[in-house]
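Lecture notes, unit on protein representations.

Consider one protein chain, 351 amino acids long.
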Amino acid sequence: CLHGPNAACSNCMPAEEDDDEATFRCRNHGPHGSCVECIERREARKMKLKRQPQAHCSSANVDFTAATVFQNYLHLKKFKVNRCGLLYGRFNDDGGVSVDVIYEPPQQSTKEASVMLQDKDMDRVEQIASMLGLRRVGWIFSHPPRSKGIIMTPSEIATAAYLQNTYGNQAVTLILSVNEKGEGNLEAFQVSDQAMKLQSKGSFVASLDVPMSGQTAPTGAESGSAGSGTKAKLREAVFVEGAETREADTSFFIVTVPVKSAGEKGGILGADFPVENRDPAQASSDVKVHMMHMAGKPFLQQLSDFHLLLYLSKNYFDMATDIPAMCEAVRTKSQGALEGYKVIMESLASM
């Protein structure tokens, strides 16, 4: 799963039977019998799909720099590959979400799909995010032009539902789509409460687009058994406009979230250091280039970069002592606490 070894979520636990159904005993027969009243009760309890008019997340405030860095890489690759990433930020008191960081885990990227792989650095990523006062708030993926009416595929809906179930109903899905002219468009969505309930019960046939129990699934690619681009196949029957079915239009599950730019100076972090798990890979020379590029700016600003802090934690500084001190200084904007590290970083840049 996408959390640490000591956490748990609905996907780690065996599916549980509905409490009311488990304790119900019909007056007409014993525990293993059935009758017309039982059948009618089961039919009445089947979900009646309806569109949810409003998302739980009131708005997605996306850091301008983080979004630009994500999109620019796709432009650099001429949109011949797709990318996906995990969002870190804050759930706001007004019901919105602020996205400060886009972390791109190891993945296989093609023109049609991006496959998130198991990530040995995930615990480290979560720890650094937490030290900076950030938490997982959703995910982002890109896709090439799609047929009209296809906003999210069944597996993308199942993944969004899993993330909302796991990290909170304000968790958001960002989608960077590309039109036929190669122009990018960033939109935000959530899935409905009904989609969350179906996912928690394991009712979607589609697999998730995030690593779970060693498995991976492609973004933007669907097998026939999971459903088409506009139809999601289910393991349990639901009612759609009075008719019983195990295949539902994906539009029933998708809810739009307004996107707002946090501005070029909207967050505490920059995004100048090369992003991990890309081609070309990060290298020690990137530290020197970063320090030269940021020369003349306060050292606190030079260090205020999630991707740089993650790289330093893996190669130069102790995760138990140095990185917490650095992250605390960045979080609280305490320039004075970094003087010792400034000398070390300057020596690294001169090597």
